[in-house]
Design brief:
Elements (H helix, E strand, L loop, with lengths): L1 H5 L9 H23 L3 H18 L5 H13 L8 H14 L16 H31 L1
Organism: Salmonella enterica (Salmonella choleraesuis)
Protein name: DNA circularization protein
């Protein structure tokens, strides 16, 4: 379901400088997520940093959107500290839901005065942010079901 939501994402056919800006935006978002997890679960934080470094391979054309979503889900699940008790799971859920409110992941408006390249960049950036927020929420929901 998340894959289908993100399936319209594509960097194919857009200028290299826009592709690079979209990847830089995505790397910044993942950096925010890694920072949020640094004190909570070092496994997730480290996985997000690795994913941040692999973005140029994962997001560049002709890669599929499912590659990015699968990499995100794998990174969320790499946590090793928050599996023991109910309070650990509650901490994980709070952190995941808190990530969805991070201003770095909020949607950016596209204005009629934006150039075509700026509008494309914002649209692709918004899709990446939506994928990060959605996978965080689905992971939190999965944690709730394990309670």
């Amino acid at each position: 379901a998340i894959d289908s939501m993100f399936s319209t994402f594509s960097l194919s056919g857009i200028s290299d400088f826009i592709q690079n800006d979209v990847i830089a935006d995505a790397a910044s978002m993942l950096g925010d997520v890694a920072d949020a997890f640094r004190m909570v679960d070092s496994g997730v934080s480290a996985a997000m940093r690795l994913l941040q470094g692999d973005l140029s391979v994962i997001l560049m054309p002709p890669s599929a959107a499912s590659d990015f979503v699968n990499a995100l889900q794998k990174a969320w699940r790499s946590g090793d500290r928050l599996r023991g008790s109910t309070s650990d799971l509650v901490t994980m859920i709070k952190t995941m839901s808190g990530i969805t409110l991070d201003p770095g992941l909020s949607p950016r408006g596209t204005w009629p005065t934006d150039s075509g390249s700026a509008a494309k960049q914002k649209m692709q950036r918004n899709m990446i942010a939506a994928a990060i927020r959605t996978t965080a929420i689905s992971t939190a929901v999965h944690a709730v079901t394990t309670l």
